[in-house]
Design a protein that fits this description.
The termini are far apart. The protein has one domain: P-loop containing nucleotide triphosphate hydrolases (Rossmann fold, 3-Layer(aba) Sandwich). Helices cover 26% and strands 23% of the residues. With 203 residues, it is an alpha/beta fold. The protein is globular and about 50 Å long. The longest helix has 13 residues. Strand 5, helix 5 and strand 6 form a beta-alpha-beta unit. It comes from Galendromus occidentalis.
Length: 203
């Protein structure tokens, strides 16, 4: 089996109960657990995916959204190349608190060009929506973030979210290094979108 060209550290951050752990479980194991408990501290999973015909290993860190665990997070921002900021489209408060998560990310991230993806989760709950898609797009554009709406329950856009994030990281000079300094690694131009076309480009 071909070896991964690099390992990328990706954080999943946001308020409690927005579905961060469910997104991670759906992406890594393609399952959805309605009884999943809130993360205490951190959870870590890994997955190898293929982007631009190259295998990339993702080291995925699911961080607790609860305020009482926030003091534990600083060291885990270190070395991260990507961050997925999650809010719940049915909970306006989770959207309004994105600013504090961005401040924390920008304070502790050691890579100042870290790639950020904004994800509006739980779009399957149409009748309970409190945040419009346009509001999400506008917020992502203001903060130069990728954007997608997704559903961990139905798996809508979950894989595309992570693929698009990795694609942008691989196209960001100086953000990652090749494992064992491998040569002849070619990255083709990024497609307009990945997955089913619902992923917004770099805003």
């Amino acid at each position: 089996m071909e070896e991964a060209i690099t390992t990328l550290k990706v954080l999943i951050i946001g308020e409690a109960d927005v579905g961060k752990s469910c997104l991670l479980l759906r992406f890594v194991e393609d399952t959805f657990d309605t009884q999943l408990t809130s993360t205490i501290g951190f959870d870590h999973k890994s997955k190898v995916i293929t982007v631009f015909d190259n295998k990339v290993k993702l080291s995925l860190w699911d961080t607790a959204g609860s305020e009482r665990f926030r003091t534990l997070t600083a060291s885990y921002y270190r070395g991260a190349q990507g961050a997925v900021l999650v809010y719940d489209v049915t909970c306006r408060e989770s959207f309004e608190k994105l600013d504090s998560w961005l401040i924390e990310l920008e304070t502790y991230a050691t890579h100042k060009n870290i790639v950020k993806m904004l994800v509006g989760n739980k779009v399957d709950k149409h009748e309970q929506r409190q945040v419009t898609k346009q509001e999400g797009i506008s917020y992502a554009r203001r903060h130069q973030m990728l954007f997608v709406e997704a559903s961990a329950r139905t798996s809508e856009n979950v894989t595309g979210c992570f693929e698009e994030l990795v694609a942008k990281i691989l196209h960001t000079p100086g953000l990652w290094t090749k494992k064992n300094d491998r040569e002849n690694i070619t990255l083709t131009d990024a497609p307009d979108n990945l997955g089913d076309g619902s992923v917004c480009g770099y805003c």
